[in-house]
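We close this part of the discussion by returning to an individual protein. The sequence in question and its structure tokens are set out directly beneath this paragraph:
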Amino acid sequence: MSIIGPRPILWNQFDLIEERGKYGVNDIYQGLTGWTQINKKDEIYAKAKFDSEYVNKMGIAFDTFIFIKSIQVVISNKGIREGYNNMNI
């Protein structure tokens, strides 16, 4: 596992495993944060699309950009939250 890369997925997310496999995403190291997370995508095909973009663009400069952007997303507290309906409560 690395710091930057596609997030690990659950073993039972068969659709996502298959979709990511088409783009070679399953063949690289998984990470704690990635392109999909800073773009706040949580839908299967959107995840696969952003993960495939990462595979095509991965490198030191892109990883540094994702790392800095991830810190900004965490500090702003405006990311995807499981089970949260995005209403201001």
Remarks:
- The radius of gyration is 13 Å.
- Residues 2-76 form one domain.
- The CA atoms of residues 35 and 66 lie 6 Å apart.
